[in-house]
Amino acid sequence: MEMEQIKNMYKLNGLTDYKLKTPEDLLKVHGIDFEKISGYNRLDDLTRTIYKKFIVNFFNRHGLESRIDLLPTGIYHVEEINYLVKVEPEEDYFNNYKTEILAIDRNGLKSVLHEYIDKDYEKFPIVEEESKKYIRFEYKYSCGDRLKSEWLHVIKEGKEWY
User: Can you tell which superkingdom this protein's organism belongs to (predicted)?
Assistant: First the structure.
């Protein structure tokens, strides 16, 4: 979509300040159905509510030109587990051997969403595990002539992310 086309879509939908008001505006203006994003159907009601606030804030914090190229690809409530090793037992620090990102569905069932392994540390015993839960938003955007994938931690009721 060109810039004038996107501006016209906002105006046609009564959004003369070029700001989305509801997640439904995303479909009307950008053709993106926020409920069809991968992982949405597995979210519990609270996480869905947070996601609805977040997706509007996320798009509104980008300029119009950037919004044209944003493509949400996933929204998940996840548990991230890091498996830590020590190369030398007397060292004060750990090395991350493996990270599992587990999607948690509305019934508490978990499934592996992503897994990362550092083969350099596979021969060392796992001495500690660290775990944290958060909402994970995945998206793609144009970078020159290619699409880049990114993901964010969504925090503070969908008002902040990093």
Answer: Bacteria
Kindly list the averaged pLDDT for each block of 10 residues, start to end, along the chain of length 162: 91 97 97 98 97 98 94 98 95 96 97 98 96 98 92 95 96
Does 59 lie in the same domain as 11? yes
* Residue 136, φ and ψ in degrees, nearest 5: -115, 125
| Residue range(s) defining the domain that contains residue 101 | 78-131
- Buried b / exposed e over 85-97, threshold 16 CB at 10 Å, is bbeeeeeeebeeb
Q: List Cβ neighbours of 37 (8 Å cut-off, separation of 6 or more).
A: 72, 73, 74, 75
- Let me know whether 12 and 91 are in one domain: no
125 and 84 fall within a common domain: yes
Return the closest-CA partner of residue 30 out of 62, 1, 57, 4. Answer: 1
